[in-house]
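lol ok so funny story. i was supposed to be doing the assay writeup but got distracted and ended up predicting the structure for this chain instead. priorities right. anyway since i did it might as well share w the group, maybe its usefull for someone
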Amino acid sequence: MNDDIFDYDADVLVVGTGGAAFAAAITAAVEGSSVVMFERNEGVGGTTALSGGTAWIPDNPALRAQGKDDARDDAIRYMCRMSYPQWYCASHPTLGLPTDAYELIEAFYDNASRAVEYLTGVGALDVIADDAVPDPTRPIDLGFGIELPEMPDYGADLPENKVPNGRHCRPSPGTPLIIEQLERAARERGIDIALEHRAVKLLQNDDRAAVGLELRYRHLTVLARARKAVVFASGGFAHNAELVRRHLPGRVYGSCSTSGAQGDFVSIGIEAGASWATWPTRGGSRSRSRPHCGRPHHRGCGSHGATR
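and the output, tada:
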């Protein structure tokens, strides 16, 4: 391709500016690559910026520093029950989950803490484990005359949950929010962040390897060149009514994601050669929005964006 046609040129292009996107971008920069990040919204942070401000990390370093053992088998069993209660079966080899769903949870346990340790080690994160035990003498007022004696962790009462406190990592006292820490670390490493840039197409060479992106900036078409890789961490499709109706069975009450969660990667991934996986349900099967094209230099993230 003619170099003159590109508006941006970097080793690695990252789509999205949430926690996952910044983790990828900072890692690439630390390892010596130039990076440009693209965000379709007007502000940085994606769904991470709308969250409660903690990262739920099993077996995290701060938890271990407190002498707590978040055993792998117990944590995976708990996550499987919490994530997929409709499939959970304690006696099944994959606890009732489809193999790829089970392996994804295994990967999260095996790598989430390592990611926090890496980002902490390079100065991008400063977090501690939130080990505060709720005080039953100070009820939490939820409004409308409803009070809770304490704010439980996710499924704190479940027998599978052996570590009901300490998996939430929050900013250390006196430090910025997690998303602010990550943005600062990215900018300190020279990472360019382009706002209001929506990715619409993955550019591929004759071998179908990813070599860049086509984006829309307001009314303009923008081209970006990737010398090494394109990373999608652009959220899901919780605010795309058509995709929700087609691929999320049952009643959908809402989402924690930003309005930019329109499923951009779904169409981009399929056009690039990805295929849809199907997960069985009791009523048949449903599509699962996790396109993965298996091409060189291309990583995808296409979950529907629900925050658990």
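The longest strand covers residues 220-232. The two ends are 43 Å apart (CA to CA).
back to the writeup now i swear
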